[in-house]
Amino acid sequence: MPAATPLSLSLALLAGWVLVGVAGLVRPSSVRFAGRTLFTLGALLGFALALLAAASLARGPEALTLPLGLPDLPFHVRLDALSSAFLLILGGSSAGVSIFAAGYFRPGEGAAPGLLCLQYHLFLASMGFVLLANDAYAFMTGWESMAISSYFLVTTQHRLGEIRRAGFLYLLMAHVGALGILLCFGVLQGGSWQFTFDAMRGAHLHGAWASGAFLLALAGFGAKAGLVPLHVWLPEAHPAAPSPVSALMSGVMLKLAVYGVLRVAFDLLGSPLWWWGLVALAAGLFSAFYGALFAAVQTDMKRLLAYSSIENLGLIFSGVGLALLFQGSGMHALAALALLAALYHCLNHALMKSLLFLGTGAVLHATGERNLGRLGGLIRRMPWVAWLSLVGALAIAGLPPLNGFVSEWLLLQSFLFTDTLPHPFVNMLIPMGAALVALCAALAAYVMVKFFGVIFLGQMREPALARAHDCGGMERIGLSLLALGCVLLGLAPVQAVTALGPVTRELTGSALPAGPAAWLLAPVPGRSVSYGPLILFAASLAVVLLSVIAVRLLYHHRVRRGPAWDCGFGATGARLQDTAEGFGQPIRHIFQSFFHIERELPTPFDAAPRYRIVVDDRIWRALYRPLGRLVHRIADALAFLQQGRIASYLLYSFATLVVLLALALER
Amino acid sequence: MSPVHATHLPWDLQLLNACAALLLLLSFAMLSQRRIVTLVDLLAVQGALLTTATVLLAWRSAQPHLYVSACLTLALKVLFLPWLLHRLIRRLNVYWDSEPLINPAGTLLLGLLIVVFAFGLAQPVSELASTTTRSAIGIAVAVILLAFLMMITRRKAMSQVVGFLSMENGLFFGAMSATYGMPMVVELGVALDVLVAVLVLGVFFFQIREQFDSLDLHHLESLKEKP
Amino acid sequence: MNAAELAAQGLEVIVALAAAPLFLGWVNQCRAWLANRTAPSVWLPYRNIVKLFGKDAVLAQDASPLFRVAPYVVFSTMLVAAGIIPSMSTRLPLELAADAIALVGLFATARVFMSLAALDVGTAFGSLGARREMMVGFLAEPALLMVIFLAAHIASTTALPAISAHLTAQSFALYPSLAFAAVAFTLVLLAENARIPVDNPATHLELTMIHEAMLLEYSARHLALLEWAAALRLFNYACIGFALFVPWGMAGGAVGPIGLALAVPVLAAKLTVAGAGLALIETVSAKLRVMRAPEFLASAFLFAVLGLLVHLLLGAQA
After folding, report:
1. Chain segment A209-219, per-residue pLDDT in tens
2. Is the ipTM of this complex over 0.90?
3. pTM
4. Do residue C175 and residue B24 have CB atoms under 8 angstroms apart?
5. Cβ(B54)–Cβ(C209) under 8 Å?
C-alpha cells in the first residue's frame, strides 16, 4: 500500500476521474445524474488536484513505477515542480469548467450526457497522466488518449458535415504532431534504447543530435499548440466542440504542448543551445502576430477566440524562446525571469480563455447564434454572463490590474535585457521583438473590444434575442470561480510568483526574489522597478469613490432617461451600428497582404443587393491544399494495386511469403 | 547593464553622431515624401549635413584637404545641384509623384528591415576600421540601401534622380567615416560623374516628355517589342 | 517614503487636476492667435466643466450600467496616471506601484472603457468612433511603448521618475536616438489627444470625428468628467514628454519645500512653450483622411524603433 504522497494522491485523483467517467455509462441519458452529479464530482476532484499541486510545488521530485503497462515496459511516473505547476493549471481550470458543464447540458441536445461524461473525464485523466509521465511510453499513451478522447468530444454533433470535417482535420494534425514527438523521443534515447526519461537525462546528447531533438519537439508540440503554420486545425476544432470542451482544449490542452517543450528543452536535453531560443522566439512572435490579425477580422465568436488562443500561445512561446536564449548564453537569472513570464501567462490564459469560451457557451445556449452579425445588446438580458465575460475580456486585453497585464509586464521586462546578450547581431535584432509584442498586446485589446462590444453591447441585431435568458446557477458558479481566479492572479502576483519559484529553480537553476513586500512585485534582477497592482487598484477605486461622493455633495445625481441622441438623426435601428466585419475593416485594410479576401459587391443594378466578404487563411491555400492534392495524386497513382481480383491479392501474399523465406534462407 | 553617460564623448563626436542620425532620419523622410520639391530640399539638407560632418572631421583629424572637400560639397550638393533640379522641375512641370509601387507603410517597414540588415552588416566592418567614427558606417550603408529602395519604388523619373544623388551622399559619408575621406582624385572624379549623369538625365527627361507627354516611367514599358 | 515625498505626490496630483483645463485653454488661445482670431477666455474650460456638473444627466433608454461607470473609470485612470508621471519631483511614492509600462496600460484601460461605452448605446456614430479610436490606439500604444523602451535602455530602468533622474544627472549631451524618440512621441501625442492632423478637436462633422464621436451620448456630470479626463490626458502626455526629453528643473534627490516651490514655475514655463508649440504644429498641418492615420502612426512607430536601433548600434554613447 503506497504511502499518501502527493504523487500517489494525484494518481488516485486521476483514477477517480476515470471512475466518474465510467459511471456515466450507468445511466447515459439521464441529465440529472450524468450531467449534474457526475460533473460536479469531477469538478471537486479537479479542485482537490489543484490544491494538491499547489502544495507540492515546493517539494522535491518524487518518482514511482506503476505495475501497469506492458510486461517489460511498466509506466514510470514522476511529480516534480514543473509537473505540479501544470497540474495546478489542469485542476484549477477544469474545476471551473466542470461546474459550468454541470449546468450546461440540457435534455434533448445531441449526444447522451453519460457518453459525454465518459469522454470528458477520460480527456482530463489522460491530460493529467501526460503531466505525470516519466517515460516515453507512458507519455505517448497519455498523449494519444488525450487526442482520441478530445476527437470524440469535438465530433459530439457528428451529424453536421462541417463538424466531421473539423474533427478529421484535428485528428490528422494531432497525429502529425505525435509523429514529431515520437521521433523526438527516438532521438533523445541516444543509443541506449531505454525510453525512460531518466535514461534520456543521462544521455547527454550533443551538437546535431540535440538540435535535431529540439526541433522535432518544437514541431511536434508546436502542432498541438497551434504555432503557425501548423495552426490550421485550431480555428476549425475549437468552434466545432461544445463550449466546455473548447474551454478545456484552449485553456489546458494547448498548455500541455508548452509543458512538452519545456520538459524536452530544459529537462531532458539538459543544457539548451542559445539559437534554439531564437527559433522558438521567431515562431512564437510570428504566431502571436498572425493570430491577433486573424482574430480581428472574424465574424464567428468562437473562431475569434480560437485565433486569440493562437496569439496567446505565440506569446508564451516567445517567453520560452527568451528563456532558452538566456539559459543558452549562461544568464540564468534572466532565463528565470523569461520562464516566469511564460509560466504566468500559461496560468493566466487557462483561466481567461476558459472564462470567455464558457461565456460564449452561455450565449450560444441562450440565443442559438454563433455569428457575431446576429448578436448584440445581450448585457441587458444576460447580466451575469456579460459582466463575468467582461472580466475575461479585460484580462486578455492586458489591462492593469488584472492578470493578463502581469505576464505581459514580465515578458516586456525580459525583453529589456536582451541587448546584453553576448551574440553580436542578435542582440540588436531581438529588442525589436519587444515592438512586436507591444503590437500584439494592442491588437489583443482591439479584438476584445470587438468581441465584447459586438456581442453584449449596443442594440440587438435580431428580434429573437429579446427572449434570451441568463445562465443558470451552476454556470454562474463556474464563471465566477474563473473570474475570481483572474482577479486574484492580477491583484496578488507576488504570491503566485513565489509559488512558481521552485519551477524556475528546477529548470534554470535560479529562482527570483518576488519582491520587497507582499504587495509589490519586483522580480527583475539588478533593477529597482516594481509593480503593485493592489495599490493601483486601491488608488483608482479611491478616486472613483471620491468623485462620486464629491459630485453628489456639491451638485446632485439626477438622471433622466430618453431616446439615444445620435446627433438628432432619429431613425435609428440595430442595422445602423457597426457589424463585426465593419469593426475588423481597419485591420483588413492595413494588413491586407496577410489575408486572402473574397468579396461579393453589389452593383447599382441588383434587384436584391448583397455584400459578402470572406477572409481566408493564406497558409491553408498555399501550403495545405497543394499538399492535400499531392497526397491524392500519390494515392491515385498507387491505386492500381487495388484490383478487386482475388488472384492478385493472393499473388501479393505469395510474393511476400517467398521474399521472407528467401531472406530467412540467407541468414 | 549599468547606466551609461554620453559625456564620455567629446562634443564634436557627439555632433557627428547627431549628424549621422539626422542623415538616417532624412533618408526615411525622403522615402515617404511624395512632393518632389520637398524631396529636392531634403537632398539639399542632406548635403548641408555632409558639409558639417566633413568640417567636424577635418577639425578632429587635422587633415586640411577635408576642408577643401567640404567646400566642394557645399558648392555642389547644397547650392548647384538643388538649383539645377529646381529649374528642371519648373521646366518639366512635375511637382507630385504618383502612388509608389508598394504602399507607404510597407515601404517604411521594408526600410526598417534594410536598416537592421545594414547595421548587422556593418558591425564586423566597423571593428576593422580604425577611425573614431566607425560606428557610423552602418548608417552610411543604410542610407545607400534606402536610397536604392527609393529608386526602385518610385514612378517619376525625377524621384529616381534624387534617389541616385542620395545614394552618392551615403557613399560619401561612408567613405569619410571609414577612411577620413577618399583621395582627392577619386573624389573629383565621382563629383564629375555625378554632374555629367545629372546633365545627361536632364536631356533624357526632355526626350521622354516629348515622346510620351509625361514623365511617368511606366510609359517606357510600351517600348517593348510585341511578339 | 517621508512627508516631503508624500507632499510632492499630492502637489503633483492637485496641480494636474487644477492646471489641465488651463493648459487646454492656453493651447486654444495660441491657435487663435496664430489664426488671427480672437480666442475665448483661457478660463472657458473651467466654466464649461462647472456648467456641465450642474445639469441633469440624460441617458439613453438602452444604456447599461457600463455606460454610467465608464466616465468615472476613465477619469480615475487619468488622475492616477498623473500621480505616476514626474512633473515636479523625481521622488514619487506611487512609482513603486507602477512603472512606465503600467502607465501605458492605464492609458489603454481608459481607451478600452471609452470605446466600450461608445459601443454601448448602439448608435452609428458611437460605434464608428469606437472603431476608429481602437484603430488609432492599437498603433499609438506600441509607438509609445517603444519610446519608453528606448528611454529605459538608456537609463536601465522602466520607472519613469528614475529615468528622469538619470537623464537629469548627465550634463547636457546630445542623444540622437532620443531625437528620433522625440519625433515619434510628438506624433503619438498628436494622435492620442485627438489633435490635428489626426483628428480635429473642434469639429462638428460626425463622420470625421474620432474622439468626439465617443462623447456624443454623454451629458452633464459624465460629460464634465470626460472633458476633464481629456484635458488631463493632454497634460499627462505633455509631462511625459518633459520627463523624457526636457527633465531639468524638477525637485530631485532629497525633496525639500524649496525644490518643490521652484519646480512649479519651471513646469509652468515648460507648459507655456509646449502649448505654443502644439498650437503651431496644429496650425501648419492639415487634417489627414482617417485611413491615412494608420500611416501617420506607422511612421511614429518606425521612428521609435529606428531610435532604438540607432541607440543599439552607435553604442551607449547615443
Report:
1. 899 999 999 99
2. yes
3. 0.90
4. no
5. no
